[in-house]
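Table S2 (continued). Query chain:
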Amino acid sequence: MAYLVQSDECNNDATNFWMFTPEGLKLALKRTGWEPKKIKYLGCVDGSSNASDADKDERAFIYCTKRSKTELAV
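Corresponding output:
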């Protein structure tokens, strides 16, 4: 799942458009040919993060590998 943010959300950065759930982000990566290997969440990771409050910011950092053409066919 993804959420289209307002221009004043995401720390008032109008260049941010989408926020993904963890599963939505993994699926988007997989559909574009990447395989998530390791995910690290930083910031507000206690379940109270939101798009509007700078002190409630949560980020996902993902190490991915490129899937082979054989894997992409599956």
